[in-house]
UniProtKB/TrEMBL annotation:
The chain crosses the membrane at residues 620-641. This is ABC-2 type transport system ATP-binding protein. Belongs to the ABC transporter superfamily. Residues 229-273 are annotated as: Disordered. Residues 240-255 have a biased composition (Gly residues). Residues 660-888 form the ABC transporter domain.
């Protein structure tokens, strides 16, 4: 038996080695170069005259890039509201793969000067050409010709559009990888999804806005708000939560460089043009023409030719035919700002000229940050694309990837599952073979739809940066009764996986001949639960519709592009509403009629492909076999290790006298954070120990380790002499209340206590329920539902729960939270009385006065370490400075003489409160006796320093 454990461990290690080999073989990716990356910061001048700026740049240089062996380069652009710091991790990743990477803060952002031109070809795009010139001057960058570096451009959102435009305007760009970006800012901010692109044939074609559309008010306001912040108040992300900025970064140039960089609080009204100040406050860092366009759109909610001209100048849509650089388009399925249709339009426009295009959809976007796994996979995709086109590597034959909707417990509005992807050889429709569409029958008569005056109240479906608001509403969005028409399919006989933008035809009439509507596709479960995939809607700006409900106008509608699996037994429900909180709405009230067009059905796109495991993994059945084998081996090791631990867990000889002992305990996390470091202390029977420390000191982490909820990284925790690891039998002698009450709100206080004790499996008689209920002191409220309790009442029930069974060691974290002063006083008596029975109490609290009055001993922590341990008297000071109040001021002289004569006493100070003296080694009791014997009437004798003073001093010193 002595060799069984090592043998089992050896088998496990060998099996793990096999797993690593399988995973490596399945990855199919070259190993990332393990080399040092150094950086060079520089400010690069770009532009001329009034448009001249200085760009703040950082160059990431791999050790492998030399004059003898130059490397391709990648320009890395950031998202709106970010800076070069936002892409630092991506830059280091690419540099670690052997690329020379240049990251920079766009004009108007970070430490770069100038004003935001919104990816204007005259400004931001011209800046890219300047940076390419700079790269061409380096001998460690590979050149295709004089002044022509081998270079790719990548970026997300604002940076993604910049990469597209740069490739269109500068033919030196050799490959691009734009992410979650736009095709047309006009279509993105003024969408109008009426119409069906019959000839597109792609999964997510979105109608392009011409001269009308519904203003995306919330997103546009957030977008403009980011850029209009004064210098020093720059926002920190490209729309929440996909943040691309760094907190505290300065935006714009030095003060005085332009009106947008002025600090309004420092403006001298007598010396500054008031119009310029107003411009700075209103427009921030935007160029004036962009500011004017936004103000026009925000005030009117309409798309004017002037506004369209500004937006289209910054849109790749009009120059896609110029792009010859192979393009990897990455778009998120959780994105109400730039939906899948934007990438679809870019793919069609670029591929039309024969340029290679690959399309990747992923589970994330402006409304939901990607997981670490997905982020790593996207980095691999981008690097692989550049490897293929900048290093003449093998071109990835996969033309389209999207997250596989598995239907396994996906969250509200999220792609279900998401741990796998589907791969297809081509993005459907680019090669002339259109995407397949399944017809789904719909039913529902013509229905009146009210639009309220001023558009309020409005339906609530999507909040910028938060995606489907249904996640906060337990699966449902907020549709206002009377403001929508609904059309449902029969229950599905089999699951349907929708990959792209469904289409439907409706019939509409309006008394004014115009209507603003919002179409969306819900997933309705058998129990009536509704889910709006990704929280997406399709706005419709209708004009010239029939005013006669008897002869409505037929309208073709393209619904949002989604990736969603409708399970068998579910129904598809098309909802057409008159309002949506995220958009500009008509001011006048009206009643529309909405119905289905004759013979209309829902056409949903389906894309065939091969389901792949998570990037870098082997076939699922191989992994399953390995996991099963590991599980069996793990079980064997656990059994053997448990036997060994039981043999080794001989209790310490003084275990019953020392209920708790920490010995060299450290808790470190994988990210390097150390919550507790080398903590050692012990608690004796009958003590009430106070665990003190500021927020982040490691108190709660220490208690959680004590309770066996988490394991220490190093060291040992003993409870009554036994190891206190997770599941240790000795923990049954511990009662605890840490981090929340955990009570069931629908049950009464009594039922909560009964249920908790029943879960322990111990006899009811051992619970001492009556004693615990007496501690709670709830009276008749004990039999009322907990949801009706105040916070203080919940706290008392939780403490009574911790005392069930009268545990020998009681651990309480902030037990007086929510209690009023009388209840706190009563709690103090309870804890002292509890310890007086020979049991031990540990209390963690921020209320230092309560610790001083309740506890006999104290451990003070700061930054995960123990600062000091001792009795309250020792911490405050056994002798030390005391304040002596006299009953008669005439005794002051005689009292001072007595105190000065005490051995080791310091000088006596007279104050308005009384006499203050440092007693040194003399105890307060001895000093009091000496005064009384000298005939001095003492009114009070108290420590000059309270526990709070001692605590602040100790923590400050640490």
């Amino acid at each position: 038996m002595a060799t069984a454990l090592p043998t089992a461990l050896l088998v496990v290690l060998l099996t793990l080695g096999a797993v690593v080999a399988v995973l490596a073989a399945g990855a199919g990716r070259p190993a990332r170069a393990a080399e040092d990356v150094r950086t060079e910061d520089a400010r690069i001048a770009s532009g001329s005259g009034a448009d001249a700026v200085e760009l703040d740049t950082t160059l990431y240089l791999p050790a492998s890039a030399t004059a003898e062996d130059p490397a391709p380069a990648v320009l890395l652009a950031h998202g709106f509201g970010g800076s070069k710091q936002s892409v630092a991790d991506d830059a280091r990743d690419l540099a670690g793969r052997g690329y020379v990477v240049l990251a920079w803060s766009a004009r108007g952002f970070g430490a770069s000067t100038g004003q935001i031109g919104l990816d204007d070809p005259r400004y931001e795009v011209a800046d890219v050409s300047t940076l390419l010139d700079r790269l061409a001057e380096r001998d460690d960058v590979l050149l295709d010709g004089p002044g022509d570096p081998r270079a790719g451009v990548a970026g997300a959102s604002y940076g993604g559009a910049l990469s597209l435009l740069a490739a269109a305007y500068d033919q030196r760009v050799d490959a691009i990888a734009p992410q979650i970006t736009w095709n047309s800012l006009t279509t993105a901010l003024f969408p109008d999804d009426q119409g069906i692109l019959e000839d597109a044939g792609t999964p997510a074609p979105t109608p392009r806005t011409d001269d009308a559309g519904v203003f995306k008010r919330l997103w546009a306001g957030l977008f403009f708000g980011m850029g209009s912040a004064p210098s020093g108040q720059a926002p920190t992300g490209d729309g929440p939560p996909a943040g691309n900025g760094a907190p505290g970064e300065q935006a714009g140039g030095p003060a005085g460089a332009d009106p947008s960089s002025a600090d309004p609080s420092s403006v001298d009204p007598s010396s500054v043009d008031q119009a310029a100040v107003a411009q700075a406050l209103t427009c921030g860092r935007f160029r004036p023409e962009i500011c004017a366009a936004y103000q026009d759109a925000a005030s009117t909610g309409t798309l004017t030719p002037e506004v369209a001209a500004v937006l289209e100048r910054s849109s790749p849509a009009g120059v896609l035919d110029r792009i010859t650089a192979p393009t990897l388009l990455i778009q998120g399925t959780q994105d109400s700002l730039f939906g899948l249709g934007e990438a679809d339009a870019n793919a069609r426009g670029i591929a039309a000229t024969g340029t290679p295009v690959q399309v990747v959809w992923y589970d994330g976007g402006h409304d939901a940050g990607a997981s670490d796994r997905v982020t790593a996979d996207l980095r691999d995709q981008v690097a692989g694309w550049f490897d293929a086109h900048l290093r003449n590597g093998t071109v990835d034959p996969v033309g389209f990837r999207y997250p596989a909707p598995t239907g396994l417990g996906g969250g509200v509005g999220r792609v279900q599952g998401g741990s796998r992807v589907v791969e297809a050889d081509e993005y459907p429709g680019l090669d002339g073979d259109p995407v397949a569409r399944l017809g789904v029958a719909l039913d529902g008569g013509t229905q009146p739809v009210v639009t309220p005056a001023g558009g309020s109240p409005a339906a609530l479906t999507t909040v910028p940066g938060l995606g489907g608001i249904g996640a906060a509403l337990s699966g449902g969005t907020l549709e206002v009764p009377g403001q929508f028409a609904a059309f449902a399919s029969p229950e599905l006989d089999e699951a349907v996986e929708v990959v792209g933008a469904p289409q439907v035809r409706i019939a509409v009439s309006s008394p004014t001949g115009e209507a603003t509507l919002f179409a969306k596709l819900y997933d309705v479960g058998p129990d009536g639960t509704t889910t709006l995939p990704a929280g997406l809607v399709s706005p419709l700006a209708l004009s010239d519709v029939s005013t006669d409900p008897a002869t409505p106008t037929e309208v073709a509608v393209t619904l949002p592009g989604i990736v969603h699996r409708f399970e068998a037994g579910h129904t598809m429900r098309v909802v057409v509403s008159s309002t949506d909180q995220g958009y500009a709405l008509p001011a006048d009230a009206a009643v529309y009629t909405v119905g289905l067009a004759d013979g209309a059905e829902l056409a949903v796109p389906e894309v065939a492909g091969e389901v792949q495991a998570t990037a870098g993994t082997a076939r699922w059945w191989v992994l399953l076999g390995v996991v099963v084998a590991l599980g069996l081996l793990g079980w064997l090791v656990a059994v053997l290790w448990g036997r060994r631990r039981r043999r080794a867990d001989t209790p310490a000889a003084d275990g019953e006298d020392v209920p708790l002992r920490f010995t060299g305990v450290t808790k470190a996390y994988k990210d390097g954070f150390v919550a507790v470091r080398d903590l050692s202390f012990e608690v004796r029977r009958g003590q009430v120990l106070g665990l003190l420390g500021p927020n982040g000191a490691g108190k709660t982490t220490s208690l959680r380790m004590l309770m066996g909820l988490i394991r220490p990284t190093e060291g040992r925790i003993e409870v009554f002499g036994h190891d206190a690891g997770p599941g240790a039998p000795v923990l049954s002698r511990l009662g605890s209340f840490v981090e929340g009450t955990g009570l069931q709100p629908h049950l009464s206080g009594r039922d909560n206590l009964t249920l908790y004790w029943a879960a322990t499996g111990r006899p009811v008689a051992d619970a001492h329920m009556d004693e615990a209920i007496e501690v709670a002191g709830l009276g008749a409220a004990l039999d009322k539902p907990v949801r009706s309790y105040s916070q203080g009442m919940r706290q008392r029930v939780a403490i009574a729960q911790a005392m069930l069974g009268l545990p020998d060691l009681l651990v309480l974290d902030e037990p007086t939270n929510g209690l009023d002063p009388p209840q706190i006083h009563a709690m103090r008596d309870v804890l002292r009385s509890y310890a007086a029975t020979g049991r031990t109490v540990i209390v963690s609290s921020h209320l230092l006065a309560e610790i001083e009055q309740t506890c006999s001993h104290v451990v003070v922590m700061a930054k995960g370490r123990k600062i000091v341990q001792g009795t309250v008297e020792e911490i405050v000071g056994t002798g030390g400075s005391v304040l002596i109040g006299l009953a008669d001021d005439a005794d002051a002289e005689r009292a001072a003489e007595v105190l000065a004569g005490l051995a080791g006493a310091g000088p006596v100070e007279r104050t308005d409160e009384g006499l203050v003296v440092d007693l040194g080694p003399t105890s307060r009791a001895a000093a009091l006796t000496a005064l009384v014997q000298a005939g001095v009437a003492v009114d009070q004798l108290t420590p000059r320093r309270r526990l709070e003073d001692a605590f602040l001093s100790l923590v400050g010193e640490s």
